[in-house]
Amino acid sequence: MKISDFVREFKKTYPGQELYKVATEAEIASFEESIGILLPSTFKEFLRTFSNGILLLGWEPIGGVDEKSPCGAIRKSERIIYDLPSEVLIEETNELVDSARLITLTMFDGGESSNDHWAFICEEGIPNNEYRIGYIGQDNKSIVKVVRNFEDWLGIFWKGNKDNKDSEFAIPTFHIIYPDYDERGKILHEWLR
Fold this sequence. Notes:
Blueprint: H1 3-13, H2 25-35, H3 41-49, E1 54-56, E2 60-62, E3 87-90, E4 95-98, E5 102-104, E6 117-121, E7 132-136, E8 143-147, H4 150-161, H5 173-177, H6 181-188
Antiparallel strand pairs: 1-2, 3-4, 5-6, 6-7, 7-8
């Protein structure tokens, strides 16, 4: 889903939703310099045109480039899960990625009250830095699900929630992909497999 389409549809569907201030180009550039990694172009567009971090629909905690953002600033995943190994396994492809190249998208898991979270897998040579996004489980310290990029991730969230506005709670992206509670448990916890 294109960012501009999401912003337009979101504001039409949820006209009273309070948003945090947007980020400036200078704030984004300064933040990228501080972490030593360039952010995806589409994520930067989201920060500049929608909100510099947000608890999206009160449930999906997207970080910004400002510590004062509703969910804080995005950061290296090793600062969320302190005992993350230096290389993290992507279970779907059986590949290892450098944990220092994992940058949080969400600041924790919406719904499970854990440190499970979505992170950008920041690899060299990706056009416009449109990195894959992986879901890191705090118990098994591996990436259990990968989505192609930020626009795809946002599209999954929006498709699962746009017609859900009368519900008390939004549905987190991971729960949209895996709606069954037992299946999520087995994916996230080796002891349930």
